[in-house]
């Protein structure tokens, strides 16, 4: 590839570049916690750091940076003198090396935007975590992390064999320029067949008609129903706060069976109940229910791999209902409506469909216009994203927890993202620090909501208790 070649990004990928500001850096993250092997040598982590630094020749697109020019012309160009030290960092936590110290460091790292003149990713090795553990934090620009999370990138490090020592970091795995640059997708958007364009236009028109017919329907996105303005819908700055929680799958499954629901219903109940309690403490709970935006990844029928065609659906968390059983029943109904909406999403011409459907979101990010756009949702919740089904290892170190950290946009100060790993659900909360300075309380209240729901259904805890 010509060193001076500038590669045009696909439009849906480029929008993440367009929406990026100092206050809203558009990168996603992954936080993984590992247990050091029981018989590891004293210099295990230093050796791991040197091993990762040895991969100092990244391939496309991991050797690219933003090309100079207007943000709306999002292009890549190759970095002439790549320095691995700019992208791989080694940290040591202060004692006692608890979750609080780790959370502070990762919150600070996740607040810092990726540099415009360097490759659009970083990886941080963090030692000193209590109980003979260490952590890895990965940060990558949303335009490169196709799909809902960046977890698949970290998976390139890991394997199911604890004795495996050779790994292949994601920045050594190439995409061909014509696949990753979006040229093919860019052309297809502007010159796709009449049938696909007609399907997309018809679908958008039908969604708009539904919005007019049902202005209060939670799943309506083009003309959303009334979403209450809340603390979460204020302007935010670039500072972030991170909090985590972990639940046992079996514990949630038993509760779901007792409540005649499913694990995702229980998860949404925990989110809604925790938020209700949190905002009631500050006398800031809206009289109408908080609305969650739920991202759904779309694919054309012939498309393989992750996609940045992500449609947003709206889900009522029923936070206005005080009775726990009534709230859970209402959430079960909301989730059923959401599943029906997902089934009706298109599988043809998804790029123009997604772009048009997301116009209200793009408009809400504009400096002046954004203040006039009514809130589309109060927060984002990913739903449950599948991770490894069994234990995986990094050069003998067992992965114990896996969290996905998201972007935040203006007027939406909280994202809750959930990864299933083995027999656990790993919940990460990414919040705007100045809006939610005590973010960890929401994670704690999710645990208490689970305890209370088990008492309501007279269940005995046999799963993980956080």
UniProtKB/TrEMBL annotation:
<dbReference type="GO" id="GO:0019432">
    <property type="term" value="P:triglyceride biosynthetic process"/>
</dbReference>
<feature type="domain" description="O-acyltransferase WSD1 C-terminal">
    <location>
        <begin position="308"/>
        <end position="453"/>
    </location>
</feature>
<dbReference type="InterPro" id="IPR009721">
    <property type="entry name" value="O-acyltransferase_WSD1_C"/>
</dbReference>
<dbReference type="Pfam" id="PF03007">
    <property type="entry name" value="WS_DGAT_cat"/>
</dbReference>
<keyword id="KW-0012">Acyltransferase</keyword>
<dbReference type="InterPro" id="IPR004255">
    <property type="entry name" value="O-acyltransferase_WSD1_N"/>
</dbReference>
<dbReference type="GO" id="GO:0071731">
    <property type="term" value="P:response to nitric oxide"/>
</dbReference>
<dbReference type="InterPro" id="IPR045034">
    <property type="entry name" value="O-acyltransferase_WSD1-like"/>
</dbReference>
<comment type="pathway">
    <text>Lipid metabolism.</text>
</comment>
<comment type="pathway">
    <text>Glycerolipid metabolism; triacylglycerol biosynthesis.</text>
</comment>
<feature type="domain" description="O-acyltransferase WSD1-like N-terminal">
    <location>
        <begin position="9"/>
        <end position="266"/>
    </location>
</feature>
<dbReference type="GO" id="GO:0051701">
    <property type="term" value="P:biological process involved in interaction with host"/>
</dbReference>
<protein>
    <recommendedName>
        <fullName>diacylglycerol O-acyltransferase</fullName>
        <ecNumber>2.3.1.20</ecNumber>
    </recommendedName>
</protein>
<comment type="similarity">
    <text>Belongs to the long-chain O-acyltransferase family.</text>
</comment>
<keyword id="KW-0808">Transferase</keyword>
<dbReference type="GO" id="GO:0005886">
    <property type="term" value="C:plasma membrane"/>
</dbReference>
<dbReference type="Pfam" id="PF06974">
    <property type="entry name" value="WS_DGAT_C"/>
</dbReference>
<keyword id="KW-0319">Glycerol metabolism</keyword>
<dbReference type="GO" id="GO:0006071">
    <property type="term" value="P:glycerol metabolic process"/>
</dbReference>
<dbReference type="GO" id="GO:0001666">
    <property type="term" value="P:response to hypoxia"/>
</dbReference>
<dbReference type="GO" id="GO:0004144">
    <property type="term" value="F:diacylglycerol O-acyltransferase activity"/>
</dbReference>
């Amino acid at each position: 590839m010509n060193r001076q070649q500038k590669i045009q990004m696909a439009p849906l990928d480029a929008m993440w570049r367009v929406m990026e500001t100092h206050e809203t850096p558009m990168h996603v993250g992954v936080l993984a916690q590992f247990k050091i092997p029981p018989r590891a040598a004293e210099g295990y982590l230093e050796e791991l750091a040197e091993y990762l630094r040895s991969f100092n020749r990244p391939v496309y697109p991991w050797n690219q940076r933003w090309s100079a020019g207007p943000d709306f012309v999002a292009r890549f160009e190759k970095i002439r003198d790549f320095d691995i030290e700019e992208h791989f960092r080694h940290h040591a936590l202060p004692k006692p090396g608890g979750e609080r110290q780790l959370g502070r460091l990762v919150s600070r790292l996740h607040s810092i935007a990726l540099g415009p003149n360097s490759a659009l990713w970083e990886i941080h090795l963090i030692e000193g975590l209590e109980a003979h553990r260490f952590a890895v934090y990965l940060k990558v620009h949303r335009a490169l992390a196709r799909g809902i999370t960046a977890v698949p990138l970290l998976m390139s490090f890991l394997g199911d064999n604890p004795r495996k020592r050779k790994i292949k970091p994601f920045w050594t795995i190439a995409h061909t320029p014509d696949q990753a640059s979006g040229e093919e997708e860019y052309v297809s958007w502007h010159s796709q067949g009449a049938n696909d364009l007609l399907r997309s236009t018809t679908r958008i028109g039908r969604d708009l008609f539904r919005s007019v017919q049902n202005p209060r329907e939670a799943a309506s996105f083009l003309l959303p129903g009334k979403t209450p303005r809340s603390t979460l819908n204020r302007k935010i700055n670039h500072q972030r706060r991170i909090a985590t929680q972990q639940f046992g799958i079996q514990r949630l499954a038993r509760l779901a069976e007792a409540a005649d629901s499913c694990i995702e219903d229980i998860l949404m109940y925990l989110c809604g109940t925790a938020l209700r309690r949190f905002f009631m403490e500050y006398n800031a709970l809206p009289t109408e229910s908080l609305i969650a935006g739920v991202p759904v990844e779309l694919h054309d029928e012939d498309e393989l791999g992750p996609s940045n065609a992500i449609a947003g659906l709206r889900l009522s968390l029923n936070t206005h209902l005080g009775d726990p059983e009534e709230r859970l029943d209402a959430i079960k109904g909301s989730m059923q409506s959401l599943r029906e909406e997902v089934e009706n999403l298109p599988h043809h011409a998804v790029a123009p469909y997604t772009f048009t459907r997301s116009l209200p979101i793009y408009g809400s990010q504009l400096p002046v216009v954004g203040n006039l756009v009514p809130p589309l949702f109060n927060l984002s919740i990913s739903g449950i994203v599948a991770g490894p089904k069994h234990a995986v290892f990094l050069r003998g170190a067992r992965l114990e927890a896996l969290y996905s950290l998201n972007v935040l946009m203006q007027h939406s100060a909280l994202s809750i993202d959930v990864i299933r790993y083995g027999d656990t659900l790993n919940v990460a909360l990414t919040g705007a620090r100045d809006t939610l300075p005590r973010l960890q309380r929401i994670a704690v209240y999710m645990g208490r909501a689970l305890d209370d729901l088990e008492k309501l259904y007279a269940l005995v805890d046999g799963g993980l208790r956080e």
